[in-house]
# Entry
Amino acid sequence: MRDAYRLADQASFGATEPLVAEIRSQGAAAWVAGQMGLSGSRYTLGNGDAIHKNTQSSAFCDLPANAGANCWRDWYSSQPLVWDFYRNATQNADQLRQRVAFALQQILVVNNLEVEGTYGLRNYHNAFLDNAFGNYRQVLKKVALSPVMGDFLNNANNDKAAPNENFARELLQLFSLGTCLLDADGSLQGGRCTPTYNNETVRAYAYALTGWTYPAGGATAWGCWPVGTNCQYYGGDMVPAASYHDSAARTLLAGVSVPANSTAPQALEKVLDSLMQHPNVGPFVGRQLIQHLVSSNPSPAYVQRVAAVFNAGRFTSGGRSFGSGQRGDLAATVAAVLLDTEARGDTPARRAGKLREPVLTFTAVLRALNGRSDGEALAWWWGETLRQHVFRPPSVFNFYPPDYPVPGSTLVGPSFGIHNANSALERLNFLTYLLWWGGSTATAGVPGAFGTSVDTQPFETDANDPAKLVDRLSLLATGAALPAPTRSAIVTAVEAFTQANNGATWRTERVRQAVYLVFATPAFQVQR
# Structure
């Protein structure tokens, strides 16, 4: 039971009783393989590309046809993606695909604070759903060619005469290799930070990546600028702009060079070759996938095993084979992350696990309690309150760094970077909002709105027996019975609600009390 719950917690947006039963019936490897065959979740809400086809002199939202309180929301913002994100996460079957896509979007970050265009953001994030079990090289290529990323990190219309180094630097630092040379187990080579690259290396990559412009389709009242490029437009991959591409030979990493007179597409392939052949990429990407899915502090041996699978592109477990045999295969890598001995088993190691980040708190509670959300309340309200408003991380460094130190320990805890005393209390307020405030009703103007709510009625069948009720909820929230002192205190608190004292609602009140106290425990807040 415990191990099935752990897998559900690691590979979905929250355990449910049917999901845990399904994993126990199929076995871990078979369930993971089955999940990799599922798809269906997409970003579809929000409006289209007309914002980048406006040839009138007035701003798009000032035009009479578009004027209104929701113009920015529906055409420029990520709010429609939030609606899709939480509807998919709480209800759709392709849970593992969504969780891996969520991890990728936190590694290869863009945000709606600096890039506006709902349809472009949809394209960017649908690519992670499409490639969640593809190859990391293809993920990097889609990111490099994305006009949304091109705007975010200044690589769209990047000119060989004075190349902007922003995208090149983050491609190396955050998206593929990291700043220090790593051993195969993710530890620092020689026990100290030897730089992976220097400023001259960044400059070589910046030159190699020049010469890309927006796909055709955009228009403005004043034409496109600079001369020889396309107008801003997010409806596809960027295309070459030959006159802006540097054609000199450039020396990259991993023994790869860009030959003289290479085209922009040829240079991009060399850039990708250099990243995918570098020994850092396996442990750097593998460790972050472990952190997002399983544990903030994986052992070096765990990282090394995952990195070896990333490099080999194939993994076998439980009679199932994952991957194509190509370096960077994400199906193989994700399977290795989830099916590793350090991830599986009924008794996690003391260092195992991670603080449940706010998004996974929202979804886990909703899914466990037969709930659902249209996403509206989890953006500007709860997302901002708990500092994880999806699609709006404060910078390219995401909501939190992967190496954020846990105060008073030698451990790292990425999600502790947005956790403090206030947010700890707000997590409890979120439970109060669902259980006693009734969640949220549908908001007018939100497409297909149904609000955010849970249904605790199915648990009332166990309300006559507080101990049984608490144990059932404990298994759902943590996969195991709570420690005896905690369990005893919660059972006593639940017993306080009786028909004599609370009338006809006593069963409902018992369930609410039990849910609140069980899901408030550290055993739920820290995923193990």
